[in-house]
Write a structure and sequence with these properties.
Length: 193
């Protein structure tokens, strides 16, 4: 995800990603009051900082191009200052940007995006571009059986039944018999027990 922005006031700006609801999401926060950029996770309404850098947060009236590269549970933030608004984000490559933050977290695997401000009267977001990783492009055929750990959109839901795509593999040398699988309400809803 790439975006271009200019913040014209003191305060904080956030771009939310993998939003599942108002109480569960990740966010990149640019904060001129705390003078930092931080990646956070909000889980059941409780905020946790995944990574932060005290670099001033942002400079008022400065144009920035930022990119969040999300690969499964790995998040990388790239930043490039601009003298003026750029005409097209597609012309800015990650290799020309500075990597300033990274974090690992595996709580949310998908969701929506959003924007938010706090005590900031004016923010200009010129363009937001969300590109799939190569293995998630529907026009590209990839054997995901072996490569799901590299894909960004792998998601499996637990809906009180096992999908037809799931199979149980038992060790043929195990004398205990066939495996018994059941659902158990323990962590974040229903999980296999």
């Amino acid at each position: 995800m790439k975006f271009s922005l200019q913040l014209k006031d003191k305060g904080s700006f956030g771009i939310l990603f993998r939003v599942t609801d108002a109480f569960n999401y990740y966010a990149l926060i640019l904060d001129s009051v705390k003078k930092e950029k931080r990646l956070i996770r909000v889980f059941n309404g409780k905020e946790s900082t995944l990574a932060a850098i005290e670099d001033g947060g942002f400079v008022q009236n400065q144009w920035y191009v930022m990119a969040l590269k999300l690969e499964r549970g790995m998040f990388n933030l790239y930043v490039q200052k601009q003298n003026k608004k750029i005409s097209a984000l597609k012309d800015v490559s990650l290799s020309s940007m500075e990597k300033v933050l990274y974090a690992f977290d595996f709580v949310f695997s998908s969701g929506s995006i959003g924007l938010g401000t706090n005590d900031l009267n004016q923010a200009v977001v010129d363009e937001i571009v969300v590109d799939p990783l190569e293995c998630t492009d529907l026009a590209t055929t990839v054997d995901t059986h072996y490569h799901t750990h590299l894909c960004n959109n792998f998601k499996e839901g637990f809906n009180s039944y096992f999908p037809d795509t799931w199979t149980s593999k038992d060790d043929p040398d195990d004398v205990k018999g066939e495996s018994q699988w059941a659902y158990s309400s323990t962590y974040m809803g229903k999980v296999i027990a």
